[in-house]
Specification:
Layout (H helix, E strand, L loop, with lengths): L1 H13 L16 H9 L1 E6 L2 E2 L3 E3 L5 E2 L1 H13 L2 E6 L5 H7 L4 E2 L7 H4 L3 E15 L2 H4 L4 H4 L5 E5 L3 H9 L4 E5 L2 H9 L5 E5 H10 L6 E16 L4 H16 L2 H10 L25 E3 L1
Helix pairs in contact: 1-12
């Protein structure tokens, strides 16, 4: 908590001095940015089920790396932040309808999604990671070794992990879940061989389950640029967010947020396009990395 307070202090010193004045915009030039300024509210859309990127604590509060970035955005705009949680596959439709102003939810920038929304970033580059307790699965040398009906894999519905596994492992037996934690439990109970997910969720799973016997298999063949989704009809909001994110990176605030949420695994999360590094499992052994 002390570290986050210091980050906010640093933000006011280094970020707000360069923030734009949203009250000077005209609705015709910047419809969404003007709406935010007029209401005094930035509405964030997030799934709140991808720890440590975004998740709901036991006390009901939604927190995470994504939430911190959104909170900094609202502070720089001089408005309050309102968080609206939705299933992951409903976030972009909500953005298109104007139900939310921005989406931060560990969302990979893809060409398909970019047809529906503008994206700024990446603020982090991730890759695909398999969490498993099955040593033979962890030792697989190539996708062909896993492309059999005997390979039972769980992925989150509507995610790029679902697209990835269906494209590369069409013969595998796939289970879909709405929440990554449900997938982790299926792996823990040996109901599936492994869970394919994004690196941040993989790291959080290893961090939070050091005695579960999980082994990670990290693939850098998958390029997963994580970005901020914005409405496509407001170029000034997109420009504002580009400058905001660049300032967050240049002042080191993104790095500080990463350290806060990932701790000893922060070095594996490289903001703004740097490649994700291999990580260690909960027992301190080097994870297998595909190159």
């Amino acid at each position: 908590m002390i570290r986050i307070a210091k980050i906010f202090s640093l933000l006011f010193t280094l970020l707000l001095l360069g923030a734009c004045n949203t009250t000077q915009t005209r609705s015709g030039d910047a419809p969404v940015l003007s709406r935010i300024a007029h209401k005094g509210e930035l509405v964030l859309g997030t799934s709140a089920n991808m720890e440590p990127m975004n998740y709901r604590r036991e006390d009901g509060k939604v927190v995470g790396l994504d939430i911190d970035i959104a909170r900094f955005m609202a502070e720089a705009m001089g408005v309050k932040l309102t968080i609206k949680t939705l299933p992951f596959d409903q976030l972009l439709p909500a953005l298109q309808r104007g139900d939310v102003d921005v989406v931060l939810s560990n969302m990979t920038i893809t060409t398909k999604r970019n047809m529906k929304a503008a994206f700024v970033g990446p603020y982090m580059t991730s890759g695909k990671c398999i969490i498993t307790r099955n040593e033979s699965l962890a030792k697989a040398e190539q996708a062909a070794d896993l492309n059999t009906p005997a390979t039972r894999m769980v992925v989150m519905k509507g995610s790029t992990s679902e697209q990835f596994v269906k494209a590369l492992l069409p013969k595998a037996t796939i289970t879909l879940v709405d929440d990554p934690k449900a997938g982790v439990e299926l792996v823990r109970e040996d109901q599936v061989g492994g869970m394919l997910t994004d690196l941040p969720i993989c790291l959080a799973t290893l961090r939070d389950n050091p005695d579960a016997g999980f082994v990670s298999l990290v693939s850098l063949l998958s390029y997963e640029p994580i970005g901020i989704a914005l409405p496509p009809n407001d170029p000034l909001l997109v420009n504002w967010t580009e400058n905001f994110l660049a300032r967050m990176d240049a002042t080191g605030i993104l790095d500080e947020i990463g350290v806060h949420w990932f701790g000893p695994y922060a070095a594996a999360i490289k903001p703004l396009g740097a490649e994700a590094a291999g990580t260690k499992n909960g027992k301190g052994k080097k994870s297998k990395t595909k190159k």
